[in-house]
Amino acid sequence: MFVVTGATGNVGRSLVQILAAADAQVTATSRGISDADVPDGVRYRQADLVEPESLRPVFDGADALFLQSGGPSAHLLSPRDILDVAKAGGVRRVVLLSSQGVATRPHAASHGDLGRSIEDAVRQSGMDWTVLRPGGFNSNAYAWVESVRALRTAAAPFADIGLPTIDPDDIAEVAAAALREDGHAGQTYELTGPALSTPRQRAEAIADALGEPVRFIEQTRDEARAQMLRFMPEPVVETTLTILGEPTRAEQRISRDVERLLGRAPRTFADWAQRHIAAFR
Hints:
The protein is α/β, with parallel strands linked by helices. 41% of the residues lie in helices and 16% in strands. The strands form two sheets. The chain has a seven-stranded parallel beta sheet, sandwiched between helices. The protein has a two-stranded parallel sheet with strand order 7-9. The chain is globular, with a radius of gyration of 19 Å.
């Protein structure tokens, strides 16, 4: 049985669907979940990674675990306790959704330090482990939903600086392979899209999918910072803005891991926009 944490997130939701479509036995879990959130035949359990004891009934009888690294609650996690509970339930394989920032921003408390501590717990767990390190998600464009719907505008800083953002569905397919197949134990995969794309280009792709113009507005760093502070802690905001505005060579490097693992090129941002354009109408 596979346990998918963060099952209502952009990666977890897709991973549950992929595993269920392959007739795998799946338990989906998150802090807020119901049977309406999962495909038919998938067991759902509400639990909180911040409270490892709440996971005991979730892990009971499981073989493999997809562990998302906590998002905004990552600093509250006790990954060793989570993994101990998982092992007690029978889990012998874990696939961790980490972040590229563990390698590219090793001294940033919000990215490298915290992410490294979670990765270290997984590597030292005694289980077969695989670490996934994606860069930015295409689905971050959901931040534009309200303004595109109401005003046909999209605002972001650093309009013409490109990053190889990745489709969460590609991450989910790689995770499914690592959970189901042998040969991935002890591997760390860097996951990116197929090409650099800029905020301006991503807004244009949404406009093309809509069939209507979308006006791009370039924010100053201060304007973007003020907006991001409404929903992100200050250290995360500062590191994120630095990545967006002053990416390192490693953060702009296009990885071949998705293509090597899936036997096809990663999807483009335009592909993502076409599949999810209903959210912007």
